[in-house]
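User: Can you model how cytidine-5'-diphosphate sits in this protein?
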Amino acid sequence: MKNISVAIDGPAGAGKSTISKVVAKTLGLIYVDTGAMYRAVALYAIQNGMDTKNADGALEKSLDKISIDIAYQDGEQHIFLNGEDVSGIIRTPEVSMGASNVATLPCVRLKLVELQREIAKKQSVIMDGRDIGTYVLPSADIKIFLTASVEARAKRRHKELIEKGTSVSYEEVLLDMQKRDLNDSTRAFAPLKQADDAVLIDTTEYDFDASVDKILSHIKENMK
Ligand code: CDP
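Assistant: Here's the modeled complex, given as structure tokens:
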């Protein structure tokens, strides 16, 4: 039987990853978080004192030394950077901004997109990111563009960070998010953009369960 692919794109904090995890479990798909891959490359640059925008070319020169792997443990994606499980330490605001920077570099994107396509070839996936419907999997069976107002997204992300024990103000999170949205949607190569054939779902007024219901029913109606 043919593998199914669901592409979910949208800006930071729209709820892509939390919703995708539940949808994956309900429908028996593998959830692929592509943002984690950009975060792992950013972590490598930060840990090695490199500019995440590659101003001096150091990051590009080191790309061969960066090995990214993903594995699934109890249905959860774990990401490995040169053999080390970095799933927990890639969620800081510093790494978020770094990821948005490394994501502007075509050399980084080409390396990661190859890995993402390989994963989708082998199994049925729900893959989240910024360019899945437009660039990584242009023939995905279902394409969703998930968004919410920037204030709603910043509020959710702030709550998440505080729950994890990161001390950060709402204003800082909001500013970071606005910066990242701009960075992601204005970059030249594979920017954040709704695919022409993607359905737009705005979750500003929905709580988590309502968002999951909306997406599940859209997928079920369109997956034939
Ligand atoms: O979880 P959040 O939405 O905050 O971010 P993420 O999905 O982990 O992605 C982190 C950064 O990686 C984004 O700001 C994008 O710049 C970049 N990214 C990308 O360019 N393309 C993807 N397919 C996924 C992430």
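A couple of observations from the model: The pocket of cytidine-5'-diphosphate is lined by residues 12-13, 17, 34-35, 38-39, 96, 99-100, 103, 129-131, 180, 184 (CB under 6 Å). The longest strand covers residues 68-73.
User: Helpful, thanks.
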